[in-house]
Structure formats: C-alpha cells, structure tokens
Design goal:
The chain is α/β, with parallel strands linked by helices. It folds into two domains: 54 residues, no CATH class; 210 residues, Spore Coat Polysaccharide Biosynthesis Protein SpsA, Chain A (Alpha-Beta Complex). Strands 1, 2, 3, 4, 5, 6, 7, 8 and 9 form a nine-stranded mixed beta sheet that branches. It is globular, with a radius of gyration of 20 Å.
C-alpha cells in the first residue's frame, strides 16, 4: 500500500492528524526554537561545572553519599510498604532518602517518621503543585515540582529517583554507582522489570537512550547535572517529565552509560500523583 493510501485509511488518517497536532503543539510552544538554545546553554554550563570541580580519583573505601528522591501524594501505603523499604534494603549504605509530599493531606508524614531512621527526611509542600487541568497533560508532569524541591534538600553527590509505588533491587545503588565510577559516567541507567497487567511482566531498558526505553527509577545521575531541573512545563511538548530530563541531560553532552541488568521493579500505575 502506498504512503498516500495508508494515510487515507481510517487508522492512517487518525495517525496523520495526531502527528500533525503533535507537531503543531511543539511549534506553538516554541520547541524547535527553544531546544537548540537550551542545548547550547546547558553544554556550556556543564563544561564549566566540570572545569570548576574536576573528578578526583576515589580512595579505597571512599563512599559518596547518594540521595534517593521520592515525591508522593496521599499514597502512604505504597510509599511505606514498597518504596521506602526497598531504599532501606540497599546493600550500599551511605544514602539519604528525601521524601517530598505534594501537599499530602493523609498520614504520610506520621508513617514516614515512624521508620525512625535519621537517613529519611520528609518535607510536605505547603500547597499543591499547579498542574494542567487536562488529565493527560497532568500525567506528563506529575511530581516535577516536589522532585525539584527534593533536589534542593538533597546533600548527595549522586541522585537516585524513585517513585512512591516502585521498588529498587537490593543492589540498585551499589551496582549503578560502581558502574558509573568505573567508567567515569555522569549518568547511568539499567533495566527494570515492568508489570504490564497483573501477573504479566516484561523488561524495559536499552541503549541507545530513547523515549520508552528507559524507566525513571532505573537511573542514577551526578549532582553536577541537577542544574537541569525536572520540567513542570513539558506537557506542552507531550514529553513525560522523566524523559524530558534525560533528553536534556543527553543534549548537554553528559557522559551516559547503560548497565544491562535489572535494577528494580516498576508496577502498574494505579492511583497516580496526577489524581
């Protein structure tokens, strides 16, 4: 079937219209103008940060602090029974866990403090983040604001994002960090076991970096990259906030590596933060 005939089938026309709408939105919000400018700016900033703080050889037994950042909104059971325990089970022990509530109104703070672990810090935003009213657009950017607040509160040399309904493998940080340090990477990511439907799983994670082939909770990145923030505006480009961040980090010419092993479990998204 010719390209023209495919377009004028029912599915082909719908696909063509959707693509045109997608391109139109990107043009309307200046994606093709702003992205090259941001790319060049971020490349210069990263180059400057590298020159100001060059990598020093790690001494034997030198354990950099890793900050695990987790945004949450009224999902106290998943947070306290799944995400936080998986962080505490890490074989790598020099960690801090920064949990930021997106103006939680349930018992999240009480349950987090009940772990009675000085490595866990909780901060609740005084008001709910502003999100687009459209549920699909809201999904693209849920958690962006509390993640940025968590970054501000973090003290670690490395950042490990974790959603409140997912789990790290026990060696998640140890394996990713060792891989990064050994190869002088500034960002590394692995594969995750992803639940598609109850009882059905697949694996996500591959190289080269591309949308749909990297999971948020599979990543570890250096704090020198945190000048590139999680965007609460990327719904305009129909980009999920995590992919938007990884794309901009790659375009800044950060050194990125892929570890071909499972580093965590990503569960079906049920009641999400975009509620």
């Amino acid at each position: 079937m010719s390209r023209l005939r495919r377009i004028f089938t029912k599915d082909g026309l719908a696909s063509a219209l959707n693509y045109a709408s997608f391109r139109g939105e990107k043009m309307y919000y200046g994606y093709y103008y702003k992205t090259p400018l941001e790319r060049r700016k971020n490349q210069k900033i990263l180059e400057k940060k590298r020159s100001e703080n060059p990598e020093e050889p790690k001494k034997t037994g030198d354990l950099p602090l890793v900050s695990i950042i987790t945004p949450t909104y009224n999902r106290v059971d998943l947070l306290s029974e799944r995400a936080i325990p998986s962080a505490l089970r890490q074989t790598y022990k020099n960690i801090e866990i920064i949990v930021v509530g997106d103006h939680c109104t349930d018992e999240t703070e009480t349950r987090v403090k009940s772990f009675n672990d000085p490595r866990i810090k909780f901060y609740n935003l005084p008001e709910r983040s502003r999100y687009p009213k459209d549920p699909n657009k809201k999904w693209y950017v849920h958690g962006a604001v509390p993640r940025n607040v968590a970054i501000e509160l973090a003290s670690g040399e490395w950042i490990a994002p974790l959603d409140d309904d997912d789990e790290f493998s026990e060696t998640h940080i140890e394996n990713l960090l060792n891989y990064a340090l050994k190869n002088n990477y500034e960002m590394v990511y692995g594969k995750v076991k992803r639940e598609i439907t109850p009882g059905e799983w697949n694996e996500v994670g591959s190289y080269p970096l591309q949308n749909g082939c990297i999971s948020l909770m599979s990543v570890l990145y250096h704090s020198r990259l945190t000048f590139i923030e999680w965007s609460p505006e990327c719904w305009k480009y129909r980009e999920p906030t995590d992919w938007n961040l990884w794309r901009r980090i790659e375009e800044a010419e950060a050194r990125i590596g892929f570890l071909d092993e499972i580093v965590g479990t990503h569960y079906i998204e049920k009641v999400q933060m975009h509620k």
